[in-house]
Write a structure and sequence with these properties.
Length: 551
């Protein structure tokens, strides 16, 4: 039988686009498949904040951040916690990715037109020992244009290849089977779904209009994770994190369903580290949803008081923005699904950002004027909209009224006003000095020694009960599904491996479906900014390796 193309790429998200662009640059013919309509080109990356992990960048150096490869590797190992035989390839991928992030990554992206916001964010601050999890320094570089700005150059390269006849895009094609000839996977079968004109992110029909079969020398799987499939999330949920919440919000559209993991597994691909996942604890219900159970993550500064459902402060070092997985583990041990931020208007104006390209129109639209407007009084427009319309927000001038509103939303008298007042007043007494024993207050002072935080991310220390800083605000937080940290095991050429360690001939994997490389290059935790970068690096690697193999 004749081949339909040199390579078939499954998934038109960022990893798939990167792989397709590299294949086309090498002169290979490609069929790019995706089960969603053409409007969803770019996949999850389109909705992202566009954060990228870089090491010792010009942006860091301009802000007097002293970073190094050695420090970043120390942070990666302390965060990943590799401890399994299956971590051999993930560890090698982590090393290769760090070489990329500290080396050519920025120049490679810059050559394609990608630019960065000048202030480097400090995500996952850790808060434990130097050898523990977290970023020792700020490394979160926000793409100018957010997710769409990062997708743009790769979509442009693919469209140019389509115009040259090297790439054929087939949307509404859902893969259900991989088959082989003489031990080499060369056939992709599936269903053609009915045409759909739904907007990006909106659930599309799963009605079947027909079937398809395509053949190529190689197949690249770049289909994403399982975050939109709550059944699979709950099935994979590890005992070490307690029981999964009864109510989960979705940080990704429903089409992030894990189907290709199952298809690849049935074809012989080895799935590893499925119990490692990265879900956020600062999710709020989207008042203007695009997909079902649509949640938005708050990207918090360090100043909000974080309380469990009963009004108790979370333990050290579980401060906002410090330790996502540690916080998730603690929350699941409280017996409740939600927690609370308690803060002031002064804090929300300076510290609240919302993850998502659509929640940051100034950065997404590349408008310097709108970005500068963030320095004006008031929170950014999207944040104020959530404060006004969001189901999880309570605003009050007095603490008693705030507690009443929190209990009303929780459906019971879970929080005692007197006890919470004592906790807040004790914290407020620590504000009188630039030192003290409250480690969160110490962390706030430490954050403001970094110019980027002082300028745009950390409010000046103040008493929460100071009327001049008000009104008081409480935000109910939910667990928000997001990333799979495990996936298909791959070698450093992105070739999918079988359970015995041999290569599944003809099959490559990139992006989240491969745990961003090797079946889980993050280990147990992420340093943030490494998901989009992992898609780019693994997609580029898979595309170049498949191109060489099909020469």
């Amino acid at each position: 039988m004749a081949l339909d193309a040199d390579v078939i790429v499954i998934g038109a998200g960022l990893a798939g686009l990167a792989a397709t662009a590299e294949l086309a640059d090498a002169g290979r013919t490609v069929i790019l498949l995706d089960q969603e309509p053409a409007a969803s080109l770019g996949g999850q990356a389109h909705w992202s904040f566009g954060g990228l992990f870089l090491v010792d960048s010009p942006e860091q150096r301009r802000l007097r951040i002293r970073d190094s490869y050695e420090l970043a590797w120390q942070d990666w190992l302390g965060t990943a916690g590799f401890d399994r035989p299956e971590d051999n390839w993930p560890r090698q991928w982590a090393k290769a990715y760090l070489d990329f992030a500290a080396g050519e990554k920025r120049a490679w992206l810059h050559a394609q037109g990608v630019r960065f916001f000048p202030v480097v964010g400090w995500a996952e601050r850790g808060g434990l020992l130097a050898s523990g999890p977290g970023n020792s320094v700020p490394r979160f570089h926000i793409t100018w244009g957010t997710g769409p700005g990062l997708v743009e150059p790769f979509a442009r390269r693919v469209r140019a290849a389509v115009a040259k006849g090297l790439v054929r895009t087939c949307f509404r094609h859902r893969v259900t089977e991989l088959a082989s000839t003489a031990g080499v996977t060369d056939t992709v079968r599936g269903e053609v779904l009915v045409p759909s004109e739904v907007a990006r992110g909106v659930a599309s029909s799963r009605a079947v209009a027909g079937a398809f079969e395509l053949r190529a020398q190689a197949v690249v799987i770049a289909s994403g994770g399982i975050g939109g499939n709550h059944e699979l999330v709950r099935k994979a949920w590890p005992a070490r994190l307690g029981t999964p919440p009864a109510r989960l919000l979705s940080g990704v559209p429903a089409h992030v369903d894990g189907l290709m993991q199952q298809v690849a597994g049935a074809a012989g691909g080895h799935l590893v580290n499925g119990d490692r996942m990265w879900h956020y604890t600062e999710g709020i219900e989207n008042w203007n949803p695009i997909w079902a159970r649509h949640g938005i993550r708050i990207l918090p500064g360090p100043s909000s008081l974080w309380l469990d459902a009963r009004g108790n402060r979370l333990p050290v070092p579980l401060f906002p923005g410090f330790d996502t997985l540690g916080t998730l583990e603690h929350i699941r041990g409280t017996g409740y699904d939600h927690t609370w931020f308690v803060l002031t208007q002064k804090i929300i104006e300076k510290e609240f950002a919302l993850s998502g390209s659509e929640q940051n129109p100034d950065l997404t639209g590349r408008s310097p004027r709108q970005v500068l407007a963030r320095a004006l009084p008031g929170a950014p427009g999207p944040v104020e909209a959530f404060k006004k319309y969001g189901a999880d927000f309570v605003v009050a001038e007095r603490l008693g009224d705030l507690v009443h509103g929190m209990n009303r939303k929780a459906g019971g008298e879970l929080i005692d006003e007197a006890a919470l007042r004592r906790e807040i007043e004790a914290r407020d007494r620590e504000i009188a000095n630039p030192f003290g024993k409250d480690l969160q207050v110490t962390a706030i002072h430490g954050a403001r020694r970094y110019l980027g935080d002082k300028l745009v991310r950390t409010a000046a220390p103040h008493r929460l009960l100071d009327p001049k800083a008000g009104p008081l605000i409480a935000v109910r937080l939910h667990v928000l599904t997001r990333k799979s940290l495990g996936g298909l095991a791959t070698d450093l050429s992105a070739r999918v491996l079988r359970a015995d360690g041999s290569v599944l001939q003809g099959v490559y994997a990139a992006g989240e479906v491969a745990g961003f490389g090797g079946g889980g290059m993050h280990g147990y935790r992420s340093l943030e900014g490494t998901f989009l970068g992992g898609c780019l690096f693994s997609g580029r690697t898979a595309g170049r390796a498949a191109a060489e193999a099909t020469a």
